[in-house]
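Appendix C reproduces, verbatim, an entry submitted by the partner laboratory led by Prof. M.T., so that reviewers can inspect both the input and the predicted structure.
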Amino acid sequence: MVSVIKRMRKLKAASQFLDVQRIHLEFAFKFNNGHFGARKVWRNILPRLKYHNPAVSITINRSIDQADPANLTIFYASPKDPDTAASSTPSSPAMQSKLTSNHTSFERTETINMKHKHELDVLSELMDLTKARPVAATPEAATELQQLANEERRSAADRARNAAYTEQRRQEKALLDQARGAVGPA
């Protein structure tokens, strides 16, 4: 299990969706051929979104074929009146049954192609499409983030000091090895 400090370092402000009912993520197991950003979205962004949006259903479909698309599909909540529901689900029947099985009807869907995109580009596109509002950090979270920033500064200073010490030890050892090599065994 990942330590609490490592998880806290990943803590960043997330967003709350207004009318999103479901998010479907589809990408390949390996990150070759443009699936790296999708993998990062799955590992880093989706847990934060799920934490702040527990009612939003998030499904993931990972395929073996690297040629498959890397898509993030957003399903919006349907209106209360079923007669006014406009369906903009995927055009192929196989894709439609795979994505909408075991779920209620949706008003509309939006798809983000994540192939060869950075995770933050996908996040900004998701925020734009859903008109999500950012979640303000609580005072406790702000304090924790400040403490983590201070810890990171101290860690950087420690890394620099240890690197200088290691370099000094390496130089001393090189000088001793050079001196021993000049004298040599008798």
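Helices lie at 4-9, 36-52, 93-100, 119-130, 139-183. Additional entries are available on request from the coordinating office.
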